[in-house]
Structures are given as structure tokens and as C-alpha cells.
Amino acid sequence: MNIHEYQAKALFSQFGVPVPAGVPAKSPDEFAAALAQLPEGPVMVKSQIHAGGRGKGTFTDGFQGGVKFCKTKADAAELAAKMLGNTLVTAQTGPAGRKVQTIYFTAASDIAKEYYLAILLDRASSRPVIVASTEGGVEIEKVAHETPEKITKVFVDPAYGLADFQVRELIAALGLSGTEAKNAAKLLKALYTCFWETDASMVEVNPLITTPTGEVLALDAKVSFDSNALYRHPELVALRDLNEEDPKEIEASKHDLAYIALDGNIACLVNGAGLAMSTMDIIKHYGGNPANFLDVGGGASKDKVVAAFKIILGDANVRGILVNIFGGIMDCNVIAEGIVEAVREVGLTLPLVVRLEGNNAAQGKATLATSGLALTPADSMADSAQKIVALVA
Ligand code: ADP
Ligand code: MG
């Protein structure tokens, strides 16, 4: 689960990671009151969307820049009005862009130098890794590609936490000394605690800055949480912004279905994550393109299957459906009854290939065969994939 910059910065503050003062606003009526809470001086106006590259982004009406510097608060209110409700396209949003529904007003800092800092989970070593670079404010992928020697990685032993010698190593890599080094050490420890305590999968600060007086501040903040740990953090779940998520994925999460929208045209309905992955692979193998990942789980009810069908059909790109069920715990006949009910309810006209195998498969196949529905039965993974690819083509 991702959150907005303004929410991430509020979280940073709670953990003692220094950030410039800032206030969000969701409608133009709130601009004046929000700006009044900021200290005198220049203000940054920042579009809040779940995507980076906002500063260099362009709005669909041609207005340039989702992050703007303003000398006065009056200018800030004027620019914010141009951003709010407008759609921002950045390198990370895709061509459709994202509608800006919140503006973050924040004090503009005096920047001495910009750095890059992130903490993420390294799956290869099963450890948090801290990534730091003297090249801040630019895309880290570009730095990694062109000047990989400018990136330092420190792997943290999760049992011991971030050690002082590792903090010193990072500070040395960033070339910091004196007051800056002291402040950076405090920030690093606080950021690590924030990452650890919130079960984050990533905290990214780009840029991290030093000021002419030696302060060290997080000017940008991107935080993602491990969804599997959210049950431990109701306060973080409350930060979820449904405007930023695919409506089909929201609906799926209500039914406890593991669904991820993709950009192909063959929808899949499968039980078990591993089988769902191999189903997508075999569709690809036979020249098709999966429209989604969907795992209905081990013990799906009829209602769940109906909900899954509705979600799949909510995707306008879908030209055919492949149901691939291996009944281990799952009773194939429950799936078959769910399919019959769903197809009747939604009036399905697209090609549908169904492969049922395992527990009570014979009964399931009989239910489908006597339903009178126009569907194509299949016997193996290869058979089912070839059939749906051919039907969609
Ligand atoms: P994005 O990464 O989405 O473009 P950032 O928050 O990093 O958005 O903002 C883009 C750039 O704007 C930063 O690299 C920084 O140079 C500048 N900037 C952002 N916030 C501030 C601030 N509070 N004070 C001064 N400059 C800022
Ligand atoms: Mg940034």
C-alpha cells in the first residue's frame, strides 16, 4: 500500500525525521487557512499523487510542473488552483496521468546540496538495505545505470538493527562532516526506525538535502507498506487513498480476492497463486496476453466466483476468459455452480474456456455440460491455453 508525500512526511515527523513545515488542502476554500499555518517566506506547491517525477510532469491542459516554487503565499494559492482537479502526467503515471485531488503547501527550503536516500527490503539477502547517493533530485535508475560507483548500499542485520559503524559508513559515502554529519546520523536512525516499526517495504527520500546552516531535511517522501503486515497497523490503513487505486482491485480486495489488473485481453480465474502464475505463463507461451492475475483462493464460495467474474468483466480490454481450477481443497462443483450463476447473471457473451481438475471434477464438468451454456471445456493446462488463445484470436 502506498501513501501520499504529505502523509509520509507526517509519519516521518512522528519518528523524528526532519521535514519542512507543510499543510495539505483538498479544496480551494482550504488554501488560505492552510497557507496561514506556514511561516512567512517562499512556499512550494506540490501536487499529491501516488507517482514520482511530479516536478518534471505536465498537466493534460498543458500547464507545466506538478511541483512549483512560489515567492509569496498569494502566488501559491493561484498556482494551487491550477493544479487541483487537473490531471498530471509524469514518467511514472503512464499517458493517462493522475487527477490531483490534494495539494501540499510546504515551506521552501534553502538547498545547499541534494542527496538520495532510501531503505528497502532486499529479497536476495532477506535484509533491509539502505541506498544512499550524492546524486539527489534525479532518477536513481539513471544514476545506477550511468555512475553506479556513486551509489552506496548498506545491508542491515534485522536482528541488530542499524549499527553506528554503518551510519558512519553512509555519512562518509555522502561526504558529510561536522553539524551536517551529526544531523544526518540522527535522521538515518530515525528513518530506519520508521521503516522498521511501520513494516514498510520502502521509504525513499529524493531529495534529501543539506541547508547552508547545516540542517539535513527530507524534501520528498515516498513510502510503501507491506500489505501482509497492515493488519498490525490500523492507523496506517486509515491513510489509504482509494482515489489512487484501480477500482477493480478495490472491489477484489472487498471479496478477499487476489487480483491484479494487467494489460492483455485474456482474463484468468484460477485458484492458487502458483497456478495463477503458471496460467499466465502458458497463455503467453501460446501467443496470448493475460488481462489479469486472479487467485480466488483455496476454498472459494459460489458468491466469490460470481464476484470474480464481475470484476474480470469490468475490464473493457477482456476478449475471453480462461478458468483454470485444480481442486485440492476446492470442490470443482462449487466452482462450476459459481460459473453457471455468474454467466447467467452477467449475460456473458465472450468465449469462456474452463478446465476443472481434481476434487469432484466429474460432477463439476457435468454441471457445466448440462447448464446449456456456450462454454468450451478443456482437459489440460496446454489444451485450455491453446483453446482460449485461438478463440480470442
Ligand atoms: P518529484 O520527485 O515527484 O518530482 P519532489 O518532491 O522531489 O517531487 O520535488 C521536485 C523538486 O522540487 C525537488 O527535487 C526539489 O529540488 C524541489 N523541492 C521539493 N520540495 C521542496 C522544498 N520544500 N523546498 C525547496 N525545494 C523543494
Ligand atoms: Mg522526488
Automatic annotation (TrEMBL):
Which residues of the sequence carry a binding annotation for Mg(2+)? N206, D220
Keyword list (alphabetical) reads: ATP-binding, Ligase, Magnesium, Metal-binding, Nucleotide-binding, Tricarboxylic acid cycle
Q: Name one GO biological process term.
A: tricarboxylic acid cycle
Tell me the residue numbers annotated for binding ATP. K46, G53, R54, G55, S109, E114
ATP-grasp domain span: 9-238
Question: Could you give a GO molecular-function term held by this entry?
Answer: succinate-CoA ligase (ADP-forming) activity
Swiss-Prot/TrEMBL catalytic activity: GTP + succinate + CoA = succinyl-CoA + GDP + phosphate; succinate + ATP + CoA = succinyl-CoA + ADP + phosphate
Q: How is the cofactor bound?
A: Binds 1 Mg(2+) ion per subunit.
Residue positions binding substrate: N271, G328, I329, M330
Which cofactors does this gene product need? Mg(2+)
Database matches in Pfam families: ATP-grasp_2, Ligase_CoA
Pathway given in the UniProt record? Carbohydrate metabolism; tricarboxylic acid cycle; succinate from succinyl-CoA (ligase route): step 1/1
* Entry EC no(s): 6.2.1.5
Gene3D superfamilies to which the protein is assigned, alphabetical:
ATP-grasp fold, A domain, ATP-grasp fold, B domain, Succinyl-CoA synthetase domains
An example GO CC term for this entry is: succinate-CoA ligase complex
Listed under subunit, the entry gives: Heterotetramer of two alpha and two beta subunits.
Family stated for the protein in its record: Belongs to the succinate/malate CoA ligase beta subunit family.
HAMAP family, per the entry: Succ_CoA_beta (MF_00558)
Read off the PANTHER family from this record: SUCCINATE--COA LIGASE [GDP-FORMING] SUBUNIT BETA, MITOCHONDRIAL, SUCCINYL-COA SYNTHETASE BETA CHAIN
What job does this protein perform? Succinyl-CoA synthetase functions in the citric acid cycle (TCA), coupling the hydrolysis of succinyl-CoA to the synthesis of either ATP or GTP and thus represents the only step of substrate-level phosphorylation in the TCA. The beta subunit provides nucleotide specificity of the enzyme and binds the substrate succinate, while the binding sites for coenzyme A and phosphate are found in the alpha subunit.
Protein name in UniProt: Succinate--CoA ligase [ADP-forming] subunit beta
Q: Organism, per UniProt?
A: Cephaloticoccus capnophilus
Gene name tied to this protein? sucC
